[in-house]
Amino acid sequence: MNRQHSSNTDSDSDLRWTLEKKVETDPSCGAGLVRVLVAELEQRLRRMSEVDETSAYVHVIPLLHTLHSVVVQSGAAVPAGLLQDVLSCLRRTLSLPLPYSAVAKRTLRSIRTEETKPGSLCLRRVTAEQNLMQEQERVFVLAEPAVFSAPLEASVKRFLESDALEDAAEVQRVLVLRVLHKALGSTCQSSRVAQALQALDDRALEQTFQDVTAAAEQGFGTGGRAAYVDTLERIQEELLTAWTQDAPTGSDGSPPAAMPPPRISFYRWNDEKQLSKLLEKFTLLSSAGVDREENKTGDLSASRRSPPRRLTARVVLMGDDRALGRLARAYLALRKRESKRLKLTKKLNIEFYYVPVTAVEPWHRSPNSPSRNDGKISLARFLERVDPWYKYNIGSLGATVSSLPVESPHLLDTLCYYLRCGTQPVNLPVYSVKMRRGDACVEDVFVSQLEAEMPEFRHLKHKPAESSARKPRRQTVAAFGGVINVSYTATSLSKRHVTKADAPMTCGLVIRSEPAAAAPGEDFLSVRFDSVNPQFNTKIQTRNITIKTIEHRTLSVCLDKDARRKFTDVQSIEVAPCLDPRRSILPGRFLDKVLSLPINTFCGFSP
Q1: Using an 8 Å Cβ cutoff, are 103 and 253 in contact?
Q2: Which of 219-233, 362-376, 411-425, 593-607 has the highest mean pLDDT?
């Protein structure tokens, strides 16, 4: 925790991963680790009450997530007295400002559930990930083809898909044993239960799994933990009674198998329409699964209780700013289609995750290196500033993707950690672009930046201008660029909006998105006009801007640093916040709202 400001982000991520693997292989060390974490959190809370510094909050998120992982995901239960200390400490974190209190609330709620029903949250999570019950999830990893070569694609695909447990029966055995081991503690006869589960036929195993799931899903009501444990003791007794072979009694002390990873499907994202096709296929197959189950059992009550199933698609994007730009386009297209007819979103919850990977810019920069905004991962840098825990776990992960050894589980384990703990979204604003090219109008969107240049002045960016005194006035004007008409609404920290017009002389311009979390106030655009003459290099802040060329000149426009999204012969550009096609409905009227791309992180952001 004291290494938060270290530049060695790779080793910080490795430490978190090593700690997680230690608890997984030796659950008995969990209680000692919880005591250390609670003491550290108590110390941080005291410091925050004495010193009102934002930096004091930075350590809270790692502590909360590590507590959650140790208490909820480890194979051994935490002593009841220690759990009470954890809950007491967590209650005090609820008074922290957002987004810290939101993470604290989630952690408190989870550990309360774990106190009453040990093992139930792990059971619910893996059951959804493996599509074993009504709640179903699927993970789709989309890799940016401009970053992932064919060999790298094959390697990462093998990493992510090889460890999946295709046998549903084996997953059920793992889960039943984990729940019994965690809830019953020393009274769980782990060795005999494991052998008894192996001896069950598919039908008996399914019934045992259903019984354990029912115990975990029942309301708290009267009895609480005692009733839950009694039910699981009865299930264990029935298992062992039906299995008559001799085996040592009591617990052998060995930990249960680790939580199986979710089902992951890896794709090289060549076509933007591929996302909607994957989501449609997932929804249709899940619905078909319900129909087959009903036809087989003749029981229609399940569909009456839960008419779509509860479906969640977790979309993980691996790439750079170009990939996020394409994701914004695909997301907008999906929202437009859903605004006309709800087909997917009434059945399906979609969550986005982002692992920054680039083959162009080195991830680590020295203090004297050029501005990070010049790279292809500017939005990843923004997410890192918002959430340092994202930086140390996911930002550093992207740097190692291309160099991981075949046998390393680090990529899959860290991705699972992100999927299970990264529940707080950061909203990246999406901006619409209208470009006029002759009689045609082209519409598009961007999330990171728009770059425009006058092709005839492109060479001026790379050589200094000669002194204006040495050239006639007409040649001097041409040497500095062309004149464009600009109208925009200026923004400031006071949130005053003033409409302005200007006619700068420039050879190009860059419009960058500045999300609200990066500076006080609301989202805005920073616009920089480039000229060889320093006096024409100006910057403005706005949310809307219109640019028109004159003198029969045209612009070449590139969106989100993506050479595949270049437009030539552009005469005018209009940029404004993109409106969500699915408008909010208030009593008696519709309310337009701005579209944003929600990327899950560990702490999120609330402006």
Answers
A1: no
A2: 411-425
CA distance 143 to 317: 6
Question: Residue 431 and residue 443: Cα distance in Å, rounded?
Answer: 11
DSSP 333-363: HHHHHHHHS-SSTTTEEEEEEEEE--SSS-S
Contact 364, 400 (CB under 8 A): no
| Residue 535: C-alpha distances to residues 505, 530, 539, 548, 555 (Å) | 10, 10, 11, 21, 22
Q: Please give the Cα distance from 231 to 379 (Å, whole number).
A: 50
**Tokens standing for 80?**
């009841």
> What Rg, from alpha-carbon coordinates, does the chain have?
28
Residue 461, classed as helix, strand or coil, is: helix
Backbone angles phi, psi at 434, to 5 degrees: -115, 125
Closest CA to 210 of 193, 187, 235: 235
Pairing relationship of beta strands 264-268 and 135-143 according to DSSP bridges: parallel
- What gap in Å lies between CA 548 and CA 183, rounded to an integer? 69
By the 8 A CB rule, do 177 and 256 touch? yes
Q: What is the pLDDT of residue 302?
A: 45
Q: Which tokens go with 211?
A: 């019984």
Q: What is the 3-state secondary structure (H, E, C) of 200-266?
A: CCHHHHHHHHHHHHHHHHCCCCCCHHHHHHHHHHHHHHHHHHHCCCCCCCCCCCCCCCCCCCCCEEE
Distances (CA, A) of 529 to 358, 465, 508, 512, 536: 27, 16, 6, 12, 7
Name the phi and psi angles at 273, rounded to 5.
-70, -15
pLDDT, tens digit, 9 for 90 and up, residues 108-155: 999 999 999 999 999 999 999 998 877 889 999 999 998 888 888 888
Decide if pLDDT at 499 tops 60: yes
Read off the pTM: 0.88
Three-class DSSP labels, 151-177: HHHHHHHHHHHCCCCCCHHHHHHHHHH
Please tell me which residue, 301 or 164, carries the higher pLDDT value: 164
CA 200/CA 205 separation, integer angstroms: 6
Q: What share of the chain is helix, strand, coil (3-state, %, to 5)?
A: 50, 20, 30
Instruction: Give the count of beta carbons closer than 10 Å to the beta carbon of residue 457.
Output: 20
Through-space distance between the first and last CA atoms of the chain, rounded to whole angstroms: 26
Angstrom CA distances, 105 to 66, 119, 224, stand at 15, 19, 21
The alpha carbon dihedral of 56, 391, 362, 270 has a sign of negative
What six digits make up the tokens of 525? 């655009």
Q: State the sign of the Cα–Cα–Cα–Cα dihedral 345, 351, 357, 362.
A: positive
pLDDT category at 360 given cuts 50, 70, 90 is very low
- In which residue are the tokens 């004149």 written? 483
Specify burial of residue 46 (Cβ count, 10 A radius: 0-12, 13-18, 19+).
exposed
